[in-house]
Amino acid sequence: MEFQEIGDNYQDFFKILPQDWQEVIRPLWKDYKKSANIYALLDEKQLVAGGIVFRTAPPNRTEFEIAVGEEYVVKGYHYIGFLFVDPKRRNEALGTRWLSALKSHFPEQGFWLTIEEQVLETFYVKNGFVRVSESADVGAPEWMFIYEPILKII
């Protein structure tokens, strides 16, 4: 399994995303690709999982992400968005492998993200993220998580 930044081959990643995610990111990618990178897990050159790492604020932020997430943008944390595993390759721990590879690739980098499905909380906590906030919106709840690297003191 290989972890790599996929550069101009972003269409390969977009193809595995659900249609509604594609509709969000495709029109914005031209503007965001200057401040974001797509990292993928490749299995025999086949893209099986990937995500976008935004070095600035992500697109289409909700009021919750603006209010609570701005602190992490200012601190230099990178936002993880559109993390997705090819449905044909689910239950192989590829999401965990992707996050582990990302953290290894950027060992001193903090990350933040939001989820809209609370069932994903267990996955992110298992991968070293901590829930720091929850929106008050009952109709469309969101949860914010951060990952802070363990810095070695010499």
Write the layout of secondary structure elements.
Layout lengths: L1 E4 L4 H7 L2 H14 L3 E8 L2 E9 L8 H12 L3 E8 L8 H12 L5 E5 L5 H6 L3 E5 L8 E5 L7
Parallel strand pairs: 4-5
Antiparallel strand pairs: 1-2, 2-3, 3-4, 5-7, 6-7
What does this structure look like?
- This protein is of the alpha+beta class and 154 residues long.
- It has one domain (2-147): Aminopeptidase, CATH 3.40.630.30.
- It has helices spanning 10-16, 19-32, 63-74, 94-105, 121-126, and strands spanning 2-5, 36-43, 46-54, 78-85, 111-115, 130-134, 143-147.
- It has a 7-stranded mixed sheet, sandwiched between helices.
- The protein is globular and about 45 Å long.
- The mean pLDDT is 92.
- Its EC number is 2.3.1.-.
- Keywords: Acyltransferase, Transferase.
- Residues 1-152 form the N-acetyltransferase domain.
- It comes from Arenibacter antarcticus.
